[in-house]
Amino acid sequence: MKSKRLTASLAILFIAFLFISAKNETITVKGKVIDDSGQPLAGCAVVEEIRKGNVAVNGVSTDDKGNYTLQTEKGKTLVFSLIGYKQQKIQVKDTVLNVILLEEEQALDEVTVVAFGVQDRESVMASMPRRIQIYPVQPDSEEYSPIDENGFKFAVESPLSTFSIDVDAASYSNVRRYINRGELPPADAVRTEELVNYFSYSYAQPTGDDPVKIAVETGKCPWNAKHRLVRIGLKAKEISNDNLPASNLVFLIDVSGSMYGAMRLGLVKSSLKLLTNNLRENDRVAIVVYAGSAGEVLPSTSGNDKQKIRDALDKLEAGGSTAGGAGIRLAYDIAAKNFIKDGNNRIILCTDGDFNVGISSKEDLESLIEKERKSGIFLTILGYGMGNYKDAKMQTLAEKGNGNHAYIDNLQEANKVLVSEFGGTIHAVAKDVKLQIEFNPEHVQAYRLIGYESRLLNDKDFNDDTKDAGEIGAGHNVTAFYEIVPTGIKFSGAGSIDPLKYQKNKTNDEKTALTGSKELLTVKLRYKKPDGDTSKKIELAVIDDKSDNVSTDFRFASAVAMFGQLLTNSDFKGDADFDKVIDLAKSALENDEQGYRREFVRIAETAKGLSK
């Protein structure tokens, strides 16, 4: 009897063993994550469900095509998480697991976003490895520099307007991010010139020795029919990627706790992998990371060894405080060590700007960057994150160094900046590019520059080659708008001052001081070669024919400028409204192969609804 019982018990144990073995069978699961419209979702976290008492984290993120591959066990539950989508939990039963995620609004103050999932703060903090410190994202902790909008100036008193160019477009993608999540952006987040410069326009290519060409167009001002609008455009020489000089790149990556998450560090990795795909054998990449301290994780490596670069990116994890200053110093040291003469030497900084250890204030960062920019090493800043994004510090880095700045809110934006506009983002054809416009009081009563508030220069800075200004990359275009009040129009928008006691006030009636020229204005531009110290000047005189026969590019760009003024509630928006923005933009949808102009119309329509 005992023998039968023992045999039965052994049989039961054997069956249980087989069941457990089958359940714990290690398999490779592959699949694709898409939204309900069939579009692939990049950066989606795919992770084994964390059970109580476990500290191990096993997971991956989907690539730019929504694909993933994960080693796991049959019977395990996988959690699929992406900001803005409903989380899904699915038990592993087969080696192929495709998933559809549905959209869902998620409040940032209710969740903590981590690299492999989205859970409540308590469970995350209890289950994460002790060596990683997570910093929960606090809502409404984003930082923007205050913008003091440019006003009108009388041409007879201030005939010159001088500023540094700005090729950045970070503000547009940041504004889009706000609107897409159902909010109007704070006014200080809206830099109107960056909204305008997000889009490409059909400016004529330079044909001579100069790497940049000036174009000017005039027309009726859409938000004030009595005024004129002047569009000044610059076009940089286009260079095919194959003909770009060799690049010495340093990826400088913020891996602090505030960068933890699929849409932060996960998106950084995906972005830089896109860039890596464009590298050639003569290009080189080093990777530097910083959290509580800074370190080199990949020595300078040939662009031909793409898998080695990707593997180094895949190993990065986030956690700790943010010693941004130390990271910047180390990146410059490594870039200098591998400097390529006559090449493109550049640091690509990926961060949310939340520096909190060592050099962290705007003033200290400004001093550091001003010192380092003399090395001949350029700076590209890619901003990531939401809820804690420190735009003010990013602007300081971009403006004070020889740099450009983009905000990456999704993988499509990363593709635009690092693939479609690769040459313009990575390779400068001119630096310290300044514009100075002289207005003729014979025809211009008053004028105002739309945007560029943080890029204004003193008039004497134009001819001073020691004064820093913006860079322009291969194929880039730059646009600036001036709103002009013609002479003879009743106007008091520039304010008034008391009559002078010790000298006579100048007025537009004093024709003896004027030349009688038919020219409306003259545009002067100064630039240096990327490795030069002496500037060259080019200029173009403009006559206004008083017509309104403007190009589709003029109409579209002016619609974007009007949109920016509505978002900031500009004192000078005149009779602008969202309907005018939308109608004007819809009339100028030509040359929109990538669909960016149509996307703008959708954003403007959403903003109109939010404004109510």
Explain what the structure shows.
The protein is of the alpha+beta class and 612 residues long. It folds into 3 domains: 105 residues, Immunoglobulin-like (Sandwich), CATH 2.60.40; 251 residues, Gamma-adaptin ear (GAE) domain (Immunoglobulin-like); 180 residues, von Willebrand factor, type A domain (Rossmann fold), CATH 3.40.50. Helices cover 26% and strands 26% of the residues. The strands form 6 sheets. A 6-stranded mixed β-sheet has the order 16-15-14-17-18-19, sandwiched between helices. α8 packs parallel to α9, α12 runs antiparallel to α13 and α13 packs antiparallel against α14. The protein is globular. It starts with a helix and ends with a helix. About 8% of the residues have low confidence.
Write a compact overview of the structure shown.
This protein is of the alpha+beta class and 612 residues long. The protein has helices spanning 2-23, 121-127, 170-180, 192-196, 265-276, 306-314, 324-337, 362-372, 391-400, 411-420, 422-426, 552-567, 578-586, 596-611; strands at residues 26-35, 45-48, 59-61, 67-73, 77-81, 88-91, 99-101, 112-114, 117-119, 153-154, 160-164, 212-220, 228-236, 247-254, 284-290, 294-302, 344-351, 378-383, 403-407, 428-439, 444-450, 470-473, 477-486, 521-528, 536-542. Helices cover 26% and strands 26% of the residues.
